[in-house]
User: Which sequence fits this backbone?
RNA sequence: CGAGGCGUGGCGCAGUUUGGUAGCGCACCUGGUUUGGGACCAGGGGGCCGCAGGUUCGAAUCCUGUCGCCUCGACCA
């Protein structure tokens, strides 16, 4: 084993040995979350929350750019309101938490803690939308929701989680469809540009679509262990909710019309995706664009005259353009190297007596662990270039991993064999029948991830039943 | 909710089979020597053994109950 491949952090379980353990090790050691005393709920610690704040900042900017406004809805939903739309309540009823008492008094009507806020938005929209002049309504809210999950894992599935939910109302079906796809594209762009996570865009099958939706679109990403993760969804509700909630407007034609609605969401689960797409055995690896610390300055032989001062000077200069931290604690340099690699800091800047003598600093990349000796005269430029390069390298690596773990199956034996032994995405044709989805699930535990927009004609018949195929589908085991 | 595993200083564990003064490593504190890949020496502090009952002269250990956490399935962002 080459020296630079040596496992530097003994405390982290190797990902090839036990991926699930590796994941929880990272989450704990990098201090992203702490387990709380409440089942299935996590404490998001400062470093983890800082990642979420950066995600919020970038996503929110994109929402504003596309004309959306932020609002805040109540966190309680009266039972009668939740039950207005039949499919919706059936989908969520098994996992809602109920408030039955106010103080010591039993409530006349139970309130559920929102698992999602469609019903609240609809109730509100019915009040404020009267004319075609009131449309479109492009609202978004950042909030927490609660779903009574049976099994939980930090970030990937918790009983309470943070998210953003966009809810829009439009005059026509065409506008609603356009909005649904526009926001899916915003999500995909965000994942690739900011998180360096490549995604497959497509449509969910009826079996997998959102409760109450006419169509659900999704972006699917692939984790390092070959499991898929639904990373964001965008739903077109058609006028189903509008009819259930009576959201009507008077059009230019002086006739009453129902609105057409959409909703779309992304959650703290994205942090789980970042961990599982980019991380390695040394720990977390954060894309520079959302890393809370983009560069850490580690002084070497900091007791020597002038070292700390120089390091502080670098920090002061760089901090106007980058999120930079100086660690002048009395831990050894080696300890700091490992610590910040574990925390996924993209770039390390070493400065010691030798460097000061030569008017240079040493930059070390988290992705390659390569060292670069750069002049202090153009440090800012060098740091900017390296961060950009690391961002790109991370996307490239993630893309390569996904390509390597994406297969094609034409026969059912081939399909089962690939899911079982290789994992990852398996592209295969499908007849459109839910029976085949169910059978595949039963036989392999894989589900249809999406019907990608970019269709390919792999064969003419369904991989499962052999009947004429309608769609090419990405299949895989999912988180 | 099904199957498995685990609750002992902050973290990771041993001790439980066969009841008898609560231990180890890391972390922490003090002093010194160190400092370019998780430094070393010396000294020190910290534990109602998840919780509640029971058996016993005596319980981390045995019995009953209960709560919580983790992993894997089914459900789901």
Assistant:
């Amino acid at each position: 084993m080459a020296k630079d491949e040596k496992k530097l952090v003994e405390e982290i379980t190797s990902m090839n040995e036990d991926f699930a353990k590796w994941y929880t090790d990272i989450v704990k050691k990098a201090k992203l979350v702490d387990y709380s005393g409440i089942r299935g709920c996590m404490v998001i610690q400062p470093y983890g929350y800082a990642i979420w704040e950066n995600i919020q900042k970038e996503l929110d900017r994109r929402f504003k750019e596309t004309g959306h406004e932020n609002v805040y809805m109540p966190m309680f939903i009266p039972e009668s309101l939740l039950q207005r739309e039949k499919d919706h309540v059936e989908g969520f009823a098994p996992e809602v938490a109920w408030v039955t008492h106010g103080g010591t008094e039993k409530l006349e009507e139970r309130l559920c803690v929102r698992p999602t806020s469609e019903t609240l938005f609809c109730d509100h929209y019915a009040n404020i939308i009267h004319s075609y002049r009131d449309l479109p309504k492009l609202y978004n809210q950042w909030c927490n929701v609660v779903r009574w999950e049976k099994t939980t894992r930090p970030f990937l599935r918790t009983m309470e989680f943070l998210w953003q939910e966009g809810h829009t109302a439009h005059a026509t079906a065409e506008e609603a469809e356009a909005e649904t796809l526009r926001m899916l594209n915003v999500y995909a762009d965000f994942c690739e540009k900011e998180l360096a996570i490549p995604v497959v865009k497509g449509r969910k099958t009826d079996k997998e679509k959102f409760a109450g939706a006419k169509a659900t679109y999704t972006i699917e990403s692939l984790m390092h262990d070959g499991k898929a993760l639904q990373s964001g969804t965008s739903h077109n509700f058609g006028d189903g909710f509008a009819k259930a909630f009576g959201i009507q407007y008077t059009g230019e034609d002086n006739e009453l019309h129902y609105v057409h609605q959409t909703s779309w969401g992304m959650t703290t689960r994205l942090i789980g995706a970042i961990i599982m797409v980019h991380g390695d055995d040394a720990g977390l690896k954060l894309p520079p664009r959302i890393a809370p610390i983009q560069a850490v300055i580690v002084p070497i032989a900091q007791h020597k005259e002038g070292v700390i001062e120089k390091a502080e000077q670098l920090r002061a200069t760089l901090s106007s353009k980058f999120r930079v931290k100086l660690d002048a604690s009395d831990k050894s340099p080696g300890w700091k190297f490992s610590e910040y690699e574990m925390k996924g800091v993209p770039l390390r800047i070493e400065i010691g007596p030798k460097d000061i003598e030569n008017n240079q600093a040493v930059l070390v990349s988290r992705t390659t662990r390569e060292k670069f000796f750069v002049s202090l005269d153009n440090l800012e430029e060098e740091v900017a270039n390296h961060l950009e390069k690391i961002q790109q390298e991370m996307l490239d690596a993630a893309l390569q991993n996904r390509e390597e773990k994406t297969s094609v199956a034409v026969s059912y034996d081939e399909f089962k064999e690939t899911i079982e032994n290789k994992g990852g995405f398996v592209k295969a044709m499908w007849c459109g029948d839910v029976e085949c989805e169910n059978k595949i699930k039963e036989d392999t535990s894989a589900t249809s991830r999406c019907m990608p927009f970019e269709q390919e004609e792999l064969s003419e018949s369904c991989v499962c039943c052999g009947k004429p195929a309608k769609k090419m589908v990405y299949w895989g085991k999912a988180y």
Observations:
- The longest helix of chain A spans residues 379-404.
- Chain A has three domains: 9-278, 295-401, 406-476.
- The mean pLDDT of chain A is 92.
- Residues 50 and 292 of chain A are 6 Å apart (CA to CA).
